[in-house]
Design goal:
about 425 residues; alpha/beta; 3-stranded mixed sheet; binds N~2~-(3-carboxypropanoyl)-L-arginine
């Protein structure tokens, strides 16, 4: 068994659009009603995957879900309201950090990697994702000797998956501590992750109680637009990189982490250097913090928006000049996703597993990357105006485009 971290990025679906469905997500709200570019969006995502693979990282992907979601529209009696149509058309499953919470085998009682699909109950357009997501996860990680799957927990407790969950460990393959971050109140904005959801997932995954931490998100972070914890914090192995105002009680959390993982390194960005508003606008923390192969240390893969925000850039350059654990900053262009509030970290679900135990159709290779690029270039709509959602011709184009991709990747069973 060679356990390693594999990032599973969501391929941006052909119905990618800006309908402004997510209250509390400032970018999505600001861009509501503007033209989206599904083809460019999917190609940007694919470029990120290819670049990460070129760094020597294992890379996988998950497929767009069926959209428009016909069963949802049928169940509502074929509504005419634009917001309900947009709900059925959303390509939001591209943000696979919200697909599920994943506890790798070294952490769990039965030494299997556990998945709980996230119910995403707070947002209507996201709440319809999980049955199709769970089906796909069961296909990609099918071997019951290595993987265990749980359906989403009841919708009365909102669960947003890995975006509100951090794992720290001496190395990916060592037993880790799992930190569940929940929200209580965001003032005008909803707290999407409920404490009872976090506790339920920890129980379902049979995590030892002394290696699980529950921490409340700072309500100020939610109020500033950090609708998920991964907008203000990211962890990788022994390193936690977070904004000073990410957690309601940071001193207690950091002490608990250090007690359980003495080698922990906690890198805090003070509000005096980068305010919460600047962190949210630039998505500095919605970065992929990765361990490079060999002796490469850690790299922070940030959105271009973070690299070009003056105060964030000053902080990052000072960090690189110092002697910290993060040795490289790599900016990536995922602007189409960013405009909906989804940075590099939102686009990926981390799984620690032996790649040989994963269905190879979900692992990126030179060959299938070229296949994905060709299908996207040929079949993904160039642009979508949100007022066109519901249009019959566009619906056929979107359904056909996804069908072509499934066919090309030999994944027709997901149709
Ligand atoms: O749930 N945006 C997503 C962005 C998810 C980001 N994920 C993480 N932070 N892990 C959301 O708010 C916008 C869709 C729209 O408005 O049409 C949207 O769903």
């Amino acid at each position: 068994m060679t356990l390693t971290e594999i990032n599973f990025d969501g391929i941006v679906g052909p119905s990618h659009n800006y309908a402004g469905l997510s209250l509390g997500n400032l970018a999505a709200t600001a861009n509501a009603g503007t033209l989206s570019h599904p083809r460019a969006a999917a190609l940007q995502g694919l470029e990120k995957m290819r670049a990460n693979r070129a760094l020597g990282l294992e890379q996988g992907f998950l497929l767009p879900l069926p959209r428009p979601k016909a069963s949802f529209l049928e169940a509502l009696g074929q509504p005419d309201e634009p917001a309900l149509k947009a709900t059925a058309w959303s390509a939001s499953a591209m943000w696979t950090a919200n697909a599920a919470t994943v506890s790798p085998a070294p952490d769990t009682a039965d030494r299997r990697c556990h998945f709980t699909a996230a119910n995403l109950a707070t947002m209507a357009h996201r709440s319809i994702e999980w049955p199709d997501t769970a089906r796909q996860l069961r296909l990609a990680f099918a071997d019951p000797r290595h993987f265990a799957h749980h359906d989403a927990i009841p919708a009365c407790y909102g669960d947003e998956g890995a975006a509100n969950h951090m794992r720290m460990a001496a190395s990916h393959t060592a037993p880790g501590i799992e930190i569940f971050v929940y929200g209580r109140s965001g003032g005008a904005f909803p707290a999407r992750q409920h404490e009872q959801a976090s506790r339920a997932v920890a129980r379902l995954h049979a995590l030892p109680v002394d290696r699980v931490l529950f921490a409340e998100q700072d309500p100020a972070a939610i109020a500033a637009g950090a609708f998920h914890n991964d907008v203000v914090a990211v962890a990788n192995e022994r390193v936690l990189f977070a904004h000073e105002q990410a957690f309601a009680d940071p001193a207690t959390l950091f002490a608990q982490i250090r007690e359980r993982l003495p080698e922990a390194e906690i890198v805090i960005v003070p509000a005096a250097a980068v305010t919460l508003a600047e962190a949210v606008a630039s998505y500095l923390f919605n970065a992929q913090l990765v361990t490079l192969p060999g002796d490469g240390g850690m790299a922070l893969i940030v959105p271009l928006e973070a690299w070009s925000a003056p105060k964030v850039r000053i902080w990052l350059e000072a960090m690189l000049a110092g002697n910290g654990p993060i040795r490289q900053v790599i900016p990536v262009d995922v602007r189409q996703s960013m405009a909906n509030g989804g940075g590099p970290a939102c686009l990926r679900l981390r799984v620690v597993a032996d790649p040989a135990t994963v269905d190879p159709r979900f692992l990126l290779s030179d060959a299938n990357a070229a296949t994905i690029a060709a299908v996207v270039a040929r079949h993904w709509p160039e642009q979508i105006d949100p007022t066109d959602l519901g249009n019959g011709a566009l619906a056929s184009d979107v359904v056909r485009a996804r069908g072509k991709l499934l066919e090309a990747l030999d994944l027709d069973e997901l149709i």
